[in-house]
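Suppose you are handed a protein chain with no further information: no name, no annotation, nothing but its sequence. What can you learn? This example shows the usual starting point.
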Amino acid sequence: MNRPYTFINVAMTADGKIDTFERKGSAISSKWDKERVDELRATADGILVGGKTLLDELPKLTVKSEALREGRILRGLPPNPIKVGIATVANIPLESDFIKAGDTRVVIFTTSQTSINQVEILRAHGVEVFVDDAPRVDLSQMARTLKQLGINRLMVEGGGTINFELMRLGLVDELMIYLAPMIFGGAIAPTLADGLGLARSDAIALKLMNVETREDGGILLKYKL
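A reasonable first move is to predict its three-dimensional structure. Written in structure tokens, the prediction is:
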């Protein structure tokens, strides 16, 4: 396979929302789920987020547990997976946690809509920047590039638009959903898969692999695509 094994992990409410209509990164995961996500991060070679998540939330994307980081080092890996961001215009603050937090490589895929000056500034601060001369980043080519960078196992942490595009293009192998016992509502609140959407005849088929119920009322669903 000329791309990484790719899995999406998402926490969503019982009505399918991954955030409220305010889009401020509302907490959904339980304590157990946060620990599970940290363990998942520790298994990955890279963690990817799309533009809105990258620029609005400036996520750390690091392994929080010192024991898990040490475990990676013992396996001959860096303490944290490679951070991967996708943004049509990569105007990300240099002091952001995405760039500064943790000991790891930082990779950004962007387009020629990002100024040459901004690209040069990011590279001067150690960010590996790949520029696509097109209106949008070519995600299939990006996946091939990630494989070349040594990422064999890629974790995707949203948001809804990048989740949908990766699944639509057949670039995702597994989907993990923590279904939280709460309702956000809101017609404009983001969901697991946003973007343009598909006709019923083109729906992405999932195969249920496992269901795990938690005492907190949450449910963990694992699907193969």
